[in-house]
Amino acid sequence: MEKEELMRKAIKLSIDNVTNGGGPFGAVIAKDGEIIATGVNRVTTLCDPTAHAEVSAIRAAATKLGTFNLSGCEIYTSCEPCPMCLGAIYWARLDKMYYANNKTDAKNIGFDDSFIYDELSLKPSARKLPSEILLAEEAIKAFQQWTEKSDKIEY
Ligand SMILES: [Zn+2]
């Protein structure tokens, strides 16, 4: 399938998802022009704040391919991703992202994630989310164990 066809599939998923009670977002993951997996926004239908279209598509593609590394695949998302999904796209090692609607389009209909993008550039102490360091000297033991582990699966 050509990239326009793959994006039209993501857009159709987003439109159909509105009809089905979900948010107006859809995503497709493809490899060599073939669809590996799709995802739609199911935040409200699953009561899962992380069930965004892109994360859902990544989970489905990784399960289908049996790998946490989706290099060689591309994602087609009906809207420019939020910071969580953009992070997931990087973690999944996807080769390329295509998007249709942009952040401003999303903001204009009530999906404003610009505040998260703004927060990311701040030091933790300056963010709206209160956070403090707690028991770091105990938590570091897991990192030491990881460093010493000889048979770990690095990712
Ligand atoms: Zn997202």
TrEMBL record:
Superkingdom of the source species: Bacteria
PANTHER family for the chain: CMP_DCMP-TYPE DEAMINASE DOMAIN-CONTAINING PROTEIN (PTHR11079:SF161), CYTOSINE DEAMINASE FAMILY MEMBER (PTHR11079)
Translocase recorded as keyword: no
Gene3D superfamilies to which the protein is assigned, alphabetical: Cytidine Deaminase, domain 2
Any GO MF annotation of the entry: zinc ion binding
One GO term (biological process): purine nucleoside catabolic process
InterPro entries: APOBEC/CMP_deaminase_Zn-bd (IPR016192), CMP_dCMP_dom (IPR002125), Cytidine_deaminase-like (IPR016193)
Keyword Metal-binding applies: yes
Name of the molecule in the record: Nucleoside deaminase
Domain CMP/dCMP-type deaminase: 1-112
Keywords: Hydrolase, Metal-binding, Zinc
Family according to the record: Belongs to the cytidine and deoxycytidylate deaminase family.
Coiled coil: none
Pfam family, one: dCMP_cyt_deam_1
